[in-house]
Amino acid sequence: MATQDFLVELGTEELPPKALKPLSDAFTQGIAKGLEDAGIEFGKVEAFAAPRRLAVRVRALGDAQPDKPVEKRGPAVKAAFDDSGNPTRALTGFATSLGVTPDQLDTLETDKGAWVVYRTIEKGRPTVDLLPELVDQSLAALPIPKRMRWGAHRTEFVRPVHWAIMLYGNKVIDAPIMGLTPGNKTRGHRFHCPKSLIVPTPGDYEIVLHQEGYVIADFAERREKIRKGVTAIAKTEAGGEAVIDEDLLDEVTALNEWPVPLMGRFEERFLDVPAEALISSMKEHQKYFHVVSGDGKMLPLFITVANLESKDPKQVISGNEKVIRPRLSDAAFFYDTDRRTRLEDRIDQLKPIVFQDKLGSLYHKSVRVAALAKKIADAIGSDPQLAERAAMLAKTDLVTEMVLEFTDLQGIMGQYYAANDGENEDVASALNEQYMPRFAGDDLPTTLTGCAVAIADRLDSLVGLFGINQPPSGTRDPFALRRASLGVLRIIIERELPLDLQACCEWAEETFTVLTEQNTASTVVDYMLERFRAHYEEQGINAEVYLAVHARRPTGPLDFDRRVKAVEAFRQLPEAQALAAANKRVSNILTKQGGEDIGETIDESLLQDAAEKTLAEQIRKQADKVLPLFEKGDYAAALTALANLRQPVDSFFDEVMVMAEDDATRNNRLAMLNSLRNLFLRVADISVLPTSA
């Protein structure tokens, strides 16, 4: 099959920078999937994305779909011919529907008899005929929340589309896309090359744009060029280090076709403002990278990335310096103004701010969280008074000028203002740490006071919203309760806090007077324990391991985690499958014979066979060994010890009949099995584990 490279480019007005990469990825994946579904052979698929263009190049694309055999079954041979051997109406109707004569049909022998069949080869469609439809389908499926129209066009897209390329080899596919007739012409940089450029073949695409058009079309190449340029200019011009936020780097890459890093300065007096406020102002509003010294201190410098090569870069730098000065002046003004009012004097300002209609204001939430944090702090060995104080101040920075302007600084500014007010160091830290972890993999609170407030704040939201029947549903989770649950679990586990979720949720429930749902605390605990499943799957731990532990419903996250790790280690042992199978067998036997009514006291005088005597002795010996380990929470060592029971358990089932005719003997054997199973149940229900590879 002959192959050619294929190129499709959509030229637009400037695309939303935060959406550029997702749009490019989706467009590329859509083209690739369309080709796969069509059965067309192709090589490497390459994506290109810049502010004014989305493009995809497919290497070594086959010129047609492969031919494929087609077989259609008709009537049974018995029904296809009459007694004289002439075609029946059933056969002639089948042949006519296919546009053939009966003598062009074959027969197919099957277990159920012979059938008339039509066999042919369906010729594959030319690729050039399929491509316009594939491109349209991929564009229609792009993740665009709101599409727009422009001019007199009825076409809709995220931004107006002004040109299009569709090239297969050196041939233009001129079927309309997005209301335009494609050609082989692209456009260069808006200022450096404001004209059309011919792209002879798909392989020339990025070369033409780079050499003639002042456009680096490859997103990844442009991103790396910006990273190296920003890093180099910080080092060579200031002896410092540029701090490159990956999300900001993506956004800047999406804003520039021909990036040129430039360094500017701001007045040193602004360094008296907290660095986070300066960074937020530069990053969010101006898309600047900040620079730090070798010891990590912020320097009065910024790096901007211009989308052109200026003949007078000093003018560009000067313009950026003029723009950032009022921004930083605002931040300095807000900082000075906010520090004149103590945080504790802002508490009453939280009363008009609604947290949730039925659950009251942020003031009401603060009072509840303070009471809960006090109890949690006491349970983890922290200072309850500090936790209570921190919780009451926790939301007060939301009404400061700085946070009203820069919302991403909530908590961060609270810590600065609390320190300025002379609050205890742990209290000040807790105002920032209450929001930790802000996202998956984020840092956790470092102080116990911060842990208490962070846990209390999240549990208040969980218990309150579940208690008024407002739990998350499907993809709808406006209060981010899933993230709140995972945050609580992470803090408790990674900080090794001796907290029980049931107790904590019951404490939270006591702070409310408006809850309408029954058993709210238990419902919330069940919801939170269910979050463990995805948590462990991300760590590569088998779902059955989680289910084995969950079956015992331990409500202490740290205890739950230790059990999971122990069962996961046990599962790797050679004895694990056999013992899991034995536990499953024991569980089935005990369930049929009375379940919980069966005791676990073994009468040694009733032991008859050598195998059951050995098992009884080994159960007693292992119990003496593992019970102290269970008390210490050393589940891994306990399960490793219990793995030694495999041989006596196997021998017991091979040589002993559990359901003996004598009632006393039978009940004694059931008690022994119950004693065996209960040893494992101290950790998890290992009968849930898979018993075959």
From TrEMBL:
<dbReference type="GO" id="GO:0004820">
    <property type="term" value="F:glycine-tRNA ligase activity"/>
</dbReference>
<keyword id="KW-0436">Ligase</keyword>
<dbReference type="GO" id="GO:0005829">
    <property type="term" value="C:cytosol"/>
</dbReference>
<dbReference type="GO" id="GO:0005524">
    <property type="term" value="F:ATP binding"/>
</dbReference>
<dbReference type="Pfam" id="PF05746">
    <property type="entry name" value="DALR_1"/>
</dbReference>
<comment type="similarity">
    <text>Belongs to the class-II aminoacyl-tRNA synthetase family.</text>
</comment>
<protein>
    <recommendedName>
        <fullName>Glycine--tRNA ligase beta subunit</fullName>
        <ecNumber>6.1.1.14</ecNumber>
    </recommendedName>
</protein>
<keyword id="KW-0963">Cytoplasm</keyword>
<dbReference type="Pfam" id="PF02092">
    <property type="entry name" value="tRNA_synt_2f"/>
</dbReference>
<dbReference type="GO" id="GO:0006426">
    <property type="term" value="P:glycyl-tRNA aminoacylation"/>
</dbReference>
<comment type="subunit">
    <text>Tetramer of two alpha and two beta subunits.</text>
</comment>
<keyword id="KW-0030">Aminoacyl-tRNA synthetase</keyword>
<dbReference type="GO" id="GO:0004814">
    <property type="term" value="F:arginine-tRNA ligase activity"/>
</dbReference>
<dbReference type="InterPro" id="IPR015944">
    <property type="entry name" value="Gly-tRNA-synth_bsu"/>
</dbReference>
<feature type="domain" description="DALR anticodon binding">
    <location>
        <begin position="585"/>
        <end position="689"/>
    </location>
</feature>
<keyword id="KW-0067">ATP-binding</keyword>
<dbReference type="GO" id="GO:0006420">
    <property type="term" value="P:arginyl-tRNA aminoacylation"/>
</dbReference>
<keyword id="KW-0547">Nucleotide-binding</keyword>
<dbReference type="InterPro" id="IPR006194">
    <property type="entry name" value="Gly-tRNA-synth_heterodimer"/>
</dbReference>
<dbReference type="InterPro" id="IPR008909">
    <property type="entry name" value="DALR_anticod-bd"/>
</dbReference>
<keyword id="KW-0648">Protein biosynthesis</keyword>
